[in-house]
Amino acid sequence: MPIRNIHERIYLAESPSGLLLIARRIGRTADSITRGFRIFRLHEGATQWLEVCNLDNGMLFLGLNTSFWLSASDFKEGEENSIYFTDDVIAEYCIMEQELDPGNDSGVFHLEDQSFSSICDDDMKLLYPHPVWVVPNP
């Protein structure tokens, strides 16, 4: 199994090349901010996960309501080989004593250079309800 610790959230998504398992690394501090991602593809017939470095001309969308892969040619507004993610850390907001800012762990992770960029303006804070992805119908 490719998962190493409890500080990773797990998502599954179908892609043209097979089932993907996405591990989202979360910080170990109270802020629970995303630190990175690892992507694995299920190797058919071998029942093992193989780590991959690109999304085959596609992009991933991860969140509380759903996780899915889209082709860059079907969604020209997106950036291929990128992961779009929303804040989905509900349990921590409910049980932690310190005040956290819900919705602030959203963004775009670029696989090519392992960098992050913002989804929205810095002045805009995403509040409850948590953001969800609306799946386009190409």
From TrEMBL:
Q: Which residues form the KIB1-4 beta-propeller domain?
A: 7-109
Give the protein's recorded name. Answer: KIB1-4 beta-propeller domain-containing protein
